[in-house]
Amino acid sequence: MDRKKQLPLDERDSLVFSSGDAVEEKRPMRHVLFVIDQLCELGGAERILLNTIRLLPNDRFRCSLLTFKVDPSIHISEHVACPHFVWPLRKVYDWNAARIAFQLRKFLRDEKVDIVHTFFETSDLWAGLISKLSAPVKLVSSRRDMGILRSPKHSLGYRVMNPWFDLVLTVSEEVRRFAIQEDHLPEGKVATLYNGLELERTTTVGAPASLRSSFGLDACAPIVVTVGHIRRVKGIDILVEVAALVAREFPSVIFLVVGRNSDPMYYREIEETIERRNLQKNVILHGEYEDIFSVLNMCDVFYLPSRSEGFSNALIEAMACGLPCVATTVGGNKEAIEEGRSGYLVENEDAEAAADRIVGLLRNPGRAKQMGSAGRQIVERQFTAEVMMERLTAFYDRLLAAKRP
């Protein structure tokens, strides 16, 4: 299908956004400034940003990174080799904000920045506006969720900022629909860019048996794993209910939760529920673990109980490791899982349906293995870093081409 017929565009937006069109002439080096609100934990968006900087072709793009808050333990320089800056910003309307706005304006002009690519609300709305008022840059916004962190003023701000965005990249088609319907963005300005994995990382892993031992897990116990920072939106309370149901048939089952405690009050609620339901041996809150692919490779089933998702990195990581997946029908989950082929989708909050699907996979290891293999094939076809970077550079090229006479 002709992309331009599929998404009618006006003249201003006529550059958008087929990634298949070749650009034949030699392209000059371009400068991309990435701006993110904070780097205080390495969640999905933060990892994708840092990987993008690392993987952009360095013969065509030079990168810089700006954030307004950082956790020093992250050690940004270990993740990216480009110049990076931390300009502390607590409010967007005080003298410090004015000073940083001036710094940003000067940087954009002195360093001849071509594209400003923003992540999250302050970067989108404040840094994006300052950038467009300061220099002839193209403004790209990366939308990662269904607006779960927005306040009413953010929602209003996005509507006001609509004319300033040159391109909005959404992490899934579901988020794309949200951006069009809720932010009232023109369809031609919004394109989906799925997260991509470096598949070779999924195979360079530790031995499952020794890792189980180091985790203190029984060598024969079936393991259902989920990965994500522990907060209410991730639905870990539902996971505990599912564990109680599955344990009736598989008393030795272990539900392993790998992720940071990002909400201490909620975390304590989970602990109390585990104790009340006598599930201390069945539900393990492990905390963060750097070598996530080794963890996934020692498990049997992946379960994603999230109440909201833009597009789950953890889900496609599990699929890449050959795990059959059970996930809620929120956000982009249904764009990754092929129902009944690579896994199952269940309604949000439906613990009984999730438990039924997990029990079915544990009963039938052959079927589970087939589903895991199908999931790996889907990732190889659609969700690789190579596919992601090809599409991103094509989007950048079309934006920059529009600057030429």
Strand content: 15-25%
Fourth CATH level, the homologous superfamily of the largest domain: Glycogen Phosphorylase B
What is the topology, as strand order, of the major beta sheet? Answer: 3-2-1-4-5-6-7
Model regions low in confidence, pLDDT < 50 over at least 5 residues: 1-20
Which CATH first-tier class of the largest domain would you pick? Alpha Beta
Q: What is the share of helical residues?
A: 40-55%
Largest sheet: 7 strands, parallel
- Distance N terminus to C terminus? 29 Å
Estimate the global geometry from the Cα principal axes.
elongated
What's the arrangement of secondary structure elements?
Blueprint: H1 3-6, E1 30-36, H2 44-55, E2 61-67, E3 84-86, H3 95-110, E4 115-119, H4 121-134, E5 138-143, H5 152-161, E6 167-170, H6 173-182, E7 190-192, H7 208-215, E8 223-227, H8 236-249, E9 254-258, H9 264-276, E10 283-287, H10 292-297, E11 301-304, H11 313-320, E12 325-328, H12 333-336, E13 343-346, H13 351-363, H14 365-382, H15 385-401
Parallel strand pairs: 1-2, 1-4, 2-3, 4-5, 5-6, 6-7, 8-9, 8-11, 9-10, 11-12, 12-13
Helix pairs in contact: 3-4, 4-5, 8-13, 11-14
Structure, described:
- Helix 3 (95-110) packs across helix 4, helix 8 (236-249) crosses helix 13 and helix 11 (313-320) crosses helix 14 (365-382).
- The two termini are 29 Å apart.
- Strand 6 (167-170), helix 6 and strand 7 (190-192) form a beta-alpha-beta unit.
- This protein has two domains: 3-196 and 385-401, 3-Layer(aba) Sandwich (Rossmann fold), CATH 3.40.50; 199-382, Glycogen Phosphorylase B (Rossmann fold, 3-Layer(aba) Sandwich), CATH 3.40.50.2000.
- It contains 15 helices and 13 strands.
- It has helices spanning 3-6, 44-55, 95-110, 121-134, 152-161, 173-182, 208-215, 236-249, 264-276, 292-297, 313-320, 333-336, 351-363, 365-382, 385-401, and strands at 30-36, 61-67, 84-86, 115-119, 138-143, 167-170, 190-192, 223-227, 254-258, 283-287, 301-304, 325-328, 343-346.
- The protein has a seven-stranded parallel β-sheet with strand order 3-2-1-4-5-6-7, with helices on both faces.
- The longest helix has 18 residues, at 365-382.
- Mean pLDDT is 89; it is low at 1-20.
- 41% of the residues lie in helices and 15% in strands.
- With 405 residues, it is an alpha/beta fold.
